[in-house]
What we know:
alpha/beta; 5-stranded parallel sheet; 24% strand
Amino acid sequence: MAARLVEATETALQSAGFDExxxxxxxxxxxxxxxxxxVDAVRERLHSQQRTLSVTIRLHQVKFRERTGxxxxxxxxLMLYNLEPVSEARTKPFIFAPEVADRYVARLGEYPLPLDLxxxxxxxxxVFRGGRPLTLLPLKAAADLGWxxxxxxxSRTLSTGLAWNGVxxxxxxxxxxERVSDRRLAEAVASVAGRRHFDTxxxxxxxxxxxxxxxxxxISAALALAVPAVE
Length: 231
């Protein structure tokens, strides 16, 4: 599988080339053995080509690293979003909440891999039917359907059925629109600022709808987390 992954990436990026490959997996104690075997195999293949391997890291894997283990990659990227399951979106923010992040970041400075940071600037539409999660739509759906309010969160119950890009919604479906505001982005920055050095900061995801709700000042403050390490 490791060879197929690298070869597929080479085929997809043959015109541009690449120096680093990133594996994205929210592994747990029950899946870490097989995932770590894959990481080892992919890293060996990449190193033979003078390339590096990055893996995504979630906050629970930082706090409980003795339990979840640390993959033998060259570096990691901390994903500072989707902190709560979408199934709970009716009662709490699911993209980012500072009180949730604060429960996990105390040991961030001890994590043994060099880290990059992925901060949220996106939004999403969670749809519930009969109190159960039905689907998750991009923020563009809210913009297209006139659900995009100025605030961070809004909810509505549909009075009539409708469809968006082939997704059929029914009367009575509950719709939760959540987006990252300047305030939320600043809270995400504050939750990790000063806890460790990040080589690179990325903003997820760069689309016109998400960027329309943020100011240049908040984006600049987020990117400023990636500063040269102090010798």
